[in-house]
Amino acid sequence: MKTLLSAALLVLASASSLAQKIEVIVPTKAPLHGHLIVVFSKNEKSEPRMQMDERYESAQGFGVDVGIDGIPAPGTITVDAKTFGYPLRSLTEIPAGDYFVQGVFNLYEEFHLGSGKTVWLSPDKGEGQKWNRKPGNPYSRPVKVHFDPKSTIKLTLDQTMPEIKGTPQDPEVIAQHAPESRWLKYMRFKSEKLSKFWGRDTYLGAWVLLPDGFDEHPDAHYPLVVWQDHYSAGPRPAFTATGPKGPGAARAVAGYNFFQDWTHGRVPRVIILFVQNANPYYDDSYVVDSANVGPYGSAINDELIPAVESKYRGIGQGWARATMGGSTGGWESLATQIFYPDSYNGTWSACPDPVDFHAYQNINLYDDKNAFYRRGDFGEVPTAGDREPDGTITATAAGEFAYEYVLGTHGRSTEQWMIWQAVFSPQGADGYPAEVLDSKTGEIDPKVVQYWHDHYDLAAILKRDWPTLGPKLEGKLHIQVGDGDTYFLNNAVHLLDKQLQASVNPHSDAQFQYGPGMPHCYTGGPSEYTMQQNNANWAQRVIPQMTEHMVKTAPAGADVKSWMY
Length: 565
Fold this sequence. Notes:
Blueprint: H1 2-19, E1 21-25, E2 34-41, E3 60-66, E4 76-79, E5 85-86, E6 97-107, E7 109-112, E8 118-121, E9 138-139, E10 143-147, E11 152-156, E12 159-160, E13 184-190, H2 192-198, E14 203-209, E15 224-228, H3 249-263, E16 271-276, E17 289-290, E18 294-295, H4 296-311, E19 321-326, H5 328-339, E20 347-350, E21 373-375, E22 380-382, E23 384-387, E24 393-396, H6 397-407, H7 416-424, H8 446-455, H9 458-472, E25 477-482, H10 489-501, E26 511-515, H11 531-536, H12 538-553
Parallel strand pairs: 1-11, 15-16, 15-19, 19-20, 20-25, 25-26
Antiparallel strand pairs: 1-4, 2-3, 2-6, 3-5, 6-10, 7-8, 9-12, 13-14, 14-16, 17-18, 21-22, 23-24
């Protein structure tokens, strides 16, 4: 009896594992190369592909590499019990019930790198590295299914995401984009350095915001402010001649107010440059030279900026340049000032990404034995990822890495943790970024961490090189962060602050401002204002500080008058 029962259970288990699968067909004769993502959701508030994120409320996803890195491209792609998933790890863990299911195929291309390596990556196509909106990607319409151990789901990816026509609106805020005008110009710039690295023609986009009176004062030359931020179809800061309408009203209000101040001489007359530098790993390059992402620091600072200043009458000297940005842009602006200390005369960095890898968000890369858990003799606690300002945890580090692994293996998620890995890591033997930690287990690689420390830990670099960097950074460092930062970025800022307070020869005069209880991305400002009010007029608050410092520190004979009309 026991033998018969055991055999019956074995047959049922085997049938279940065979039946619990998703079969996906892409109706094309050409071989497929890329990454399939299948998403389950419980509601119709939006398509399933729009409901995946790093937090615990995320829809369920599964990812499969197809036709890349030696993996063959079958006619039918199968997701089964062995396919890695997030938030649940396997199809077998999904409860029986009704779901909306959708598939997306993120198309990859071969890149023959200047290093001699060949890698498969997904090029940005003007959407800012969004797999669920990338032009040309095949996908299926959502289908409602009843999922249980006995059913096989079949999907046909017979839809194609449309091409982007003209200058698109920013998909994140759906605010009005700013077409070219007398103040706003756009430049598509081919970088020889990046083209050599990527083995194909590679371009930077540049929005150039010209000051009021530019045409009327042909003999004037202007300081340059480089605004660092994520990819956006339009410029940052927002710049629009019309008032708010519909979705994205908050950004439209800020853009309209800034437009009024800018065009009526209420902001010092400078050139603002916003660079579009999306790449195959992310919507932004982090504006440094990287073994995996390429020489974006050199391309932007040595190629693009001189071209912009030459065409639009920039002063073209380090005393007359400043940089600013928040989050990714906060790290970039601080790194730019540190790596190019003579080329810039000040940085205003808000809520910067980790500036000290003792606080890599909530992970201590130097001392933690595992990135996902902290373990005691009898228990363990998961490492927090995201939080609300009140301390409520909304994601774990393990969950966030799993989420990104579903979106792409070998560091190809085009999301936050993997772009850090791509920027900061050496290139691996296979041509992809060396893993700083295992996305499935959390095991940290100390050899890769050492490379990060030596090349990109900003606090470590400042400490190591302070005798030469310190004198060049006097009066130039301004950092703001909320102490309730969503991603724990305030922890690294406090470590940097403490380190600089102890500096000597010279003693650092870096300015730090903390917002009690403020989330990501706090930009400082008057304490009586809300975070939103301070963010809305950040440019108007900061640019006068920049130009005042420029004039004060300008060398003898410098042009501090032609732009002061």
